[in-house]
Amino acid sequence: MSLPHADDPAELAAAIAAGDRAAIAHVLNLLDDRRDEARKKTTALLAHLQQDQDNPTGQLIGITGPPGAGKSTLSAALIRVWRARGLRVAVLAVDPSSPISGGALLGDRLRMQTSTEDDGVFVRSLSSRGQFGGLSAEVWPMSVVMLAGFDIVLIETVGVGQREVDIARLCDTTCYVAQPGSGDSVQFIKAGVLEVPHILVVNKADMGNLATRTLSELEAALKRTHPDGHWQVPVLATSAVDGTGIETLADALEEHYQLLRGPQLALRRKRYQAYWIHKRLLEEFGSFGIDQLGGEESLLAQLQAQDMNLFKQYDALRLRLYNRIQDTLE
Amino acid sequence: MSLPHADDPAELAAAIAAGDRAAIAHVLNLLDDRRDEARKKTTALLAHLQQDQDNPTGQLIGITGPPGAGKSTLSAALIRVWRARGLRVAVLAVDPSSPISGGALLGDRLRMQTSTEDDGVFVRSLSSRGQFGGLSAEVWPMSVVMLAGFDIVLIETVGVGQREVDIARLCDTTCYVAQPGSGDSVQFIKAGVLEVPHILVVNKADMGNLATRTLSELEAALKRTHPDGHWQVPVLATSAVDGTGIETLADALEEHYQLLRGPQLALRRKRYQAYWIHKRLLEEFGSFGIDQLGGEESLLAQLQAQDMNLFKQYDALRLRLYNRIQDTLE
């Protein structure tokens, strides 16, 4: 271990909060490691990072949309605006796990477009995996770590459907990027396949008429009040090529964050954590296991009521299920 | 019960094999009913329908693609061709379950475009539900019933991603319908988000240049040999409006079926059944439960080796897991 603080969770937590890149990279790798040793370290670390759950920090933004909509380029343009505003940004690029695409498509694309010299930008790729076909199991713990060290954490994913639903349940603010002229996004919204995002973006506004038409179609298709309430969903035109609308988008994201800040944000973060734990337990023990814990609704309520650290909460429930089940096994 | 044969599984099976619409509708409703009484009836019925597993009948076709690609209109045009060829057709239209779209969008669309007088066409809607966000749990048992009474069973779904993967694992022949000009389908294929279908269709060929361009983009993006082997994936242009390519598409579907017929088809059907049972058990008992049964690979191999009826196989495994687990519970 080359990091002097790697074995002391308090020191490691402090290094992360100070934005130490090596420390963050180290912990993200630990979170990817499912062995007991690694899990012990990350449990202790998360306990430190989550000490003050009533005052959550950072903004967790989910950016999603079909492949080809220009999410990476748009993210890179947003990052430039945020950096100019003095904000530190971490990106978690979740790629579909696929034998064809293989590696870190989104992350690599983004890295190519951002300065590697800038200490205030951190990009991590993650391939989605697991039964749920959606987000990787590591997304939430990794977000907790990144939120401790950065002002903005951007989760970028390809896709519509389950993956996009999961993102909406783990982010403060969701932003859907539509492709001009495809009509798909409009259809997705009409069909209810797409959960209503907080901000809807038609990218490639430089495509002219096509973008304008898609913009007005989306405006017509969309119920403008977000299901969360108290938020009117803006439909924005952007172009990463000529810079159109990027500042406006950054403003809208900031405006949504200001709306959430305070007790509401603390409550939401607890909800994400409960959702993540529920999903992991469901993956491992099925609906049978969830029933053993009193059913989904009761489990979620119980998790949100407790002020406990992520892995401690998760491990406690896992142990409860194991104990119930394991004795009978030959 | 208004059906005279409804309580005798042998009579009911015979009525289904004779294409008795009332009998089929009755059984599909039973399959939707999860109470013990209904389950007993359907288990007995499926045992009759699955007596000769080495000689499977019918062709199970999955048709999928993004919303707006014109799947329903294309299906209706295909049905006309099949009817003219003397084939009886059943359709299972799987809609995304959504608070917004609500009901039976795909099924209703299709019904509007087919003759309600024709005894050789049967349309059933099903809303997708369950943890997996993909196909409804009833798709496979319902397919078994429909295959007994019809020459062709068409499963139509909206979507790309998990739902489309599931369809590929439960159908003899998969057909993906792309929308001209969106570029999305090309991106999906390149990104490996889309499993390679057996037949790729660019619909709305009447859109002219846009369709031609999409067609050549897809041809370029696609590895033409299907992962199944022995099958070159055709990329076809169709138009339900002017009838272009519909006969050719029907021919390609028939050609693929001829390739599969015989021992290979029997093997594949067993594989679908094993996949379905695995998925249901995973949903209920999680990865922990699957591990208790020896893990995914071993379970699938074991299921495929047995010559057993669907619900009997499923219920036996479910019981085994329950027995292992239940004793410890307070």
Write out the CATH superfamily name of the largest domain in chain A: P-loop containing nucleotide triphosphate hydrolases
- Low-pLDDT segments of chain A: 98-103, 130-134
Seen as an oligomer or otherwise, the chain set is homodimer
Structural class of chain A: alpha/beta
Total of helices of chain A: 13
CATH architecture heading of the largest domain in chain A: 3-Layer(aba) Sandwich
Topology of chain A as a string of helices (H) and strands (E) = HHHEHEHEHEHEHEHEHHHH
CATH class of the largest domain in chain A: Alpha Beta
Kindly report the greatest chain-chain contact and the residue count on each side: A-B, 48 and 48 residues
Task: Tell me the span between the first and last alpha carbons of chain A.
Answer: 40 Å
Tertiary shape of chain A: globular
